[in-house]
Design goal:
By secondary structure, this protein is an all-alpha fold. It has 9 helices and no strands.
Length: 148
């Protein structure tokens, strides 16, 4: 789908106003209009999603020509679509930090939250290596030698 020029300019204005530190409106506008004609020549009427477009620009080594547009596409491609991971973190934190554990330090609470969130990865780890590493750091030499 090819957008009319006015819609492209309006979208550029909105995007550049939100990310004015990273994006120059005039540069983005010019590059978007120029990219539209190049897109037709290289891809025909085929529509590309933002990631495919960014990869195509890199593949054809047009990064320096479309510098501002590449920056905008990188920003767009890395924006979170949902806040599910943040919600999941808070729900895990709620389970961990209850009345019984309210006296723990912030570092321990953070570590427990990470373990809880990444519990699948933690279950796959070999606990022998973790125990030996802990013993090597915390225990005295005589105790460590008995572990081997």
């Amino acid at each position: 789908m090819i957008l009319p020029e006015e819609e492209i300019l309006q979208a550029c204005r909105i995007f550049a106003s939100k990310y004015e530190v990273d994006i120059c409106l005039n540069g983005l506008r010019e590059e978007m209009l120029h990219a539209r004609s190049i897109h037709k020549a290289n891809f025909g009427e085929k529509s590309l999603n933002p990631l495919q477009l960014l990869n195509s620009i890199s593949q054809f080594k047009l990064d320096e020509i479309f510098f501002t547009m590449c920056t905008a596409l990188r920003i767009f491609c890395t924006l979170p679509v949902t806040v599910a991971s943040a919600e999941r973190s808070f729900s895990k934190l709620k389970l961990i930090k209850n009345v019984l554990r309210s006296t723990m330090t912030q570092q321990r609470l953070s570590d427990l939250a990470t373990l809880s969130i990444e519990s699948e990865t933690a279950r796959k780890m070999g606990f022998q290596n973790v125990i030996k590493d802990f013993a090597m750091r915390k225990a005295r030499k005589a105790v460590f030698e008995t572990l081997n």
